[in-house]
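Suppose you are handed a protein chain with no further information: no name, no annotation, nothing but its sequence. What can you learn? This example shows the usual starting point.
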Amino acid sequence: MTPRRSWTRLGAALVVVPRVLVLCVVALCTVTLGAGPARAGSSCAGPPCAGAPRRPASIRTSASMAASAWTWPVPERVVLRPFEPPAHDYGAGHRGIDVRASVGTLARAPAAGTVVFAGPVAGRGVVTIDHGRGVRSSLDSVTPDVVVGTTVAAGTPVGRVAVGHCPAAAPCVHLGVRVDERYVDPLAYLAPAAWPVLLPLGDHARG
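A reasonable first move is to predict its three-dimensional structure. Written in structure tokens, the prediction is:
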């Protein structure tokens, strides 16, 4: 091999090698940039994406509480009047369910929690229990047997059914449930009712 040919081949190699290096650098940058944060709408494995939407706290709380069925406040599981959500916060409706119960029947806590109110409201006895995470239940009308601050378990007696929300001719205990201060249907938390018995239309004026 002559010296001139050797120098020619060496020069060609010096031209090719930088091109190969440039191509390798471009490929490496493309792979690195492509592995950046997941874009909206893309799927990601492992921990949830930072930008992934989450269910509101109130919905998560409601679902988790409903997963473990509550206890009916009285032995009978007959709903005299169902939940009727109002059109707005101050609208007419029925913010709970009326469960048939004789006057004097023990009313029990539907779930574990702490009593945050026990006393009269508009002349009727009410017991309110805080179950944590924004969930509260109220029993109306009852004569309270507990005081504020009492810790109760599901099924703990908290009072006795009295006349008030329902008339003496058709006594009941009214169970209301609030999640983040908004009333929801208590039946979502309870085992199925025995059967519904709806009152005549004229009796639906009570709130």
